[in-house]
Amino acid sequence: MRHPWEHVVGMGLGAVFANQLVKWDVKAQEDLDKLLIKANEANQRRYFGKSSFFFLVVWIIR
Q1: What is the pLDDT of residues 6-50, one digit of tens each?
Q2: What is the spatial distance between Cα 28 and Cα 55, in angstroms, rounded to a whole number?
Q3: Cα 42 from chain centroid?
């Protein structure tokens, strides 16, 4: 082995990279979960929140 310090530096950089990748994956999953919850709530409001009132108004106007 010619330069053993290169191995140590490489292992250290690999460990830092792996830790950051795991943190990024967890953060991305949390953000995705929040986005899906917001989208589901918006769809519930859009399709189920005002639908009965809307259909009543349309029925009266006919």
Answers
A1: 999 999 999 999 999 999 999 999 999 999 999 988 888 877 765
A2: 39
A3: 16
